[in-house]
Please model this.
Amino acid sequence: MARGRKAAVTALDGALSSAPPAPKWLPSHAKAEWRRVVPQLVVDRKIAAHELGTVEAYCLAVANMRTAEAIVSKDGPTYVSPTGELKRHPATTLVKEAVEASRRLAAELGLTPASRTKNKGGAVGSDEDDALGDI
Model:
């Protein structure tokens, strides 16, 4: 498989025109993240209905990160095992995995500084570099 640049994401023809409510099954931290990012994705025309699963996965990763980090904050990053060894708390691995997943999904959605330059989005007529943008 050839490697190369990731494709630039542009405004979608089938982009959502209004932000749907967060799915009821999402945990509270995930719903809060949904309410934070989905309205902007809709305004920027960067999300279609068939892509909401990616947003759900991103919001769930953020919620898992926050939940695991709360455990690490409460219990500490290490613990003493029954054999007396100092070991890394298992929740630190959960934090790391959730951070990696949320960063990867945020980039796909154009939510990171680097991905925003590739993810143009925008409504018709908003592309300043395109002379036909107002058509």
User: Anything to note?
Assistant: The beta strands are 78-80, 86-88. Residues 28-118 form one domain. Helices lie at 28-43, 52-75, 90-109, 113-118. The two ends are 38 Å apart (CA to CA).
